[in-house]
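Input (structure):
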């Protein structure tokens, strides 16, 4: 009987093994067929793509560089995904990594385009350009003797960047000058600071202006906090973190910044399509700045890493968020280097706040909504606009007036030397507070909170 039972058991085990193997074969066969189908589809469309490239190369009205075709194709693919996934040629990819590092060889100016002309937005303080006397509003008409007419912003930046100790000559045209003047500037290592301003208000309230995120942001923020605490005699009564117009930066630096003010719990969670991209990042208890109220000022220009910080401090109750609704970028991008040195910035995950919400295309709604201008300022501005519109009566409204172009051939305005507009006197921080309505409200809230706390202590003592 035992022998029969053993035989039956052996047969059952063999049958189970065969059935399991058959099931596994069916599953694997299905997956193999799916993979083959995907491969066949990919091959089919790859043939179509190569055929299109061949037609372009042979029949387009002008000869086309094959690199431009393939780079354009890659960018076209990425543009179909989302606005943050892009392909960057080698030089642009290198520049982006340099910008993230916050350090490069150059002269230290922020530039932009105005009506097709290359203009200095601002010289960075204590850099070669700043020491040479380059000013905001200057137009760069030549770089090393080459005209900047029609130049792209990227090309202009490339020409001005370079190794420390090398020189670049800028031909500058400034309002009030009859002709451009040359400035030969020796390049140096330029370090872009994340923390633009730290101030102490009434000897006890801290203010930090954080303008961007790069690889040094966490260290800069800690140093700023130590400086403020030192100036305040070892203890702050409150802190204002101003991240208006901060476009963001590396995720890890957003985490480091939030971690300075939160002692426990999640800072942010990240969820992607593949398991490797999924993680929850928690706060670390050591070296956390707590024990004082905190206000974060935001606006529509606060994006990405800025929103990670603001959302974390809002969800955990660590800070009050004041200002206007933020930008609403709730995705994470990763960098991938391609064989030729170009790169892809690809959206690989979404991030979620400590409470589990996504701010993608929604932004962060402040706890206290405060517009940039006070109601009184808005009313005065609108009244002034209307007054100017009603009273304005220029030469050009007279019959048979002489057009400006006829007076100055070439349409350029030349002012006599010495008629430059005097530079505006730099405001004190107290004056900045009074003229900045959102900042003024933040300061008032901190001071009001201190008074309220004092009253509560008095009440409890009785």
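Output (sequence):
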């Amino acid at each position: 009987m035992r022998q029969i039972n053993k035989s039956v058991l052996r047969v059952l085990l063999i049958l189970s093994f065969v059935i399991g193997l058959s099931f596994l074969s069916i599953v694997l066969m299905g997956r193999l067929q799916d993979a083959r189908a995907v491969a066949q589809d990919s091959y089919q469309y790859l043939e179509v793509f190569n055929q299109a490239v061949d037609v372009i190369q042979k029949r387009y009205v002008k000869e086309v560089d094959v690199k431009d075709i393939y780079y354009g194709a890659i960018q076209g693919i990425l543009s179909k995904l989302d606005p943050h996934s892009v392909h960057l040629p080698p030089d642009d990819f290198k520049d982006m990594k340099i910008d993230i590092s916050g350090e490069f060889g150059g002269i230290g100016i922020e530039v932009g385009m105005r009506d097709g002309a290359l203009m200095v937005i601002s010289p960075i303080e204590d850099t070669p350009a700043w020491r040479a006397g380059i000013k905001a509003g200057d137009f760069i008409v030549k770089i090393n003797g080459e005209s900047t007419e029609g130049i792209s912003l990227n090309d202009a930046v490339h020409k001005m960047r370079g190794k420390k100790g090398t020189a670049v000559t800028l031909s500058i045209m400034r309002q009030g000058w009859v002709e451009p003047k040359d400035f030969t500037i020796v390049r140096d290592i330029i370090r872009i600071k994340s923390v633009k301003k730290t101030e102490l208000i009434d000897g006890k309230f801290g203010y930090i202006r954080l303008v961007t995120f790069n690889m040094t942001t966490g260290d800069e923020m800690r140093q700023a906090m130590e400086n403020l605490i030192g100036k305040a005699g070892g203890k702050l009564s409150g802190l204002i973190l101003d991240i208006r117009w901060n476009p963001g930066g590396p995720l890890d630096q957003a985490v480091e910044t939030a971690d300075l003010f939160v002692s426990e719990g999640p800072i942010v969670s990240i969820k992607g399509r593949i398991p490797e991209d999924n993680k929850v990042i928690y706060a670390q208890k050591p070296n956390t700045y707590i024990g004082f109220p905190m206000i974060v000022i935001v606006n529509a220009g606060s994006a990405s890493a800025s929103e990670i910080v603001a959302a974390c401090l809002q969800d955990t109750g660590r800070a009050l968020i004041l200002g206007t609704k933020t930008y609403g970028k709730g995705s994470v991008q990763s960098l991938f280097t391609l064989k030729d040195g170009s790169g892809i910035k690809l959206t690989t995950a979404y991030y979620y706040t400590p409470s589990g919400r996504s701010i993608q295309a929604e932004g962060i709604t402040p706890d206290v909504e405060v517009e940039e201008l006070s109601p009184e300022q808005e009313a005065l501005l609108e009244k002034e606009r209307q007054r100017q519109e009603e009273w304005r009566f220029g030469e050009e409204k007279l019959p048979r007036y002489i057009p400006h172009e006829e007076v100055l051939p070439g349409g350029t305005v030349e002012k006599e030397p010495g008629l430059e507009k005097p530079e505006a006197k730099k405001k004190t921080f107290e004056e900045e507070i009074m003229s900045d309505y959102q900042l003024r409200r933040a300061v008032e809230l901190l001071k009001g909170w201190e008074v309220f706390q004092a009253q509560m202590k008095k009440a409890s003592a009785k």
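Notes: The radius of gyration is 31 Å. Residues 45-58+65-80 form one domain.
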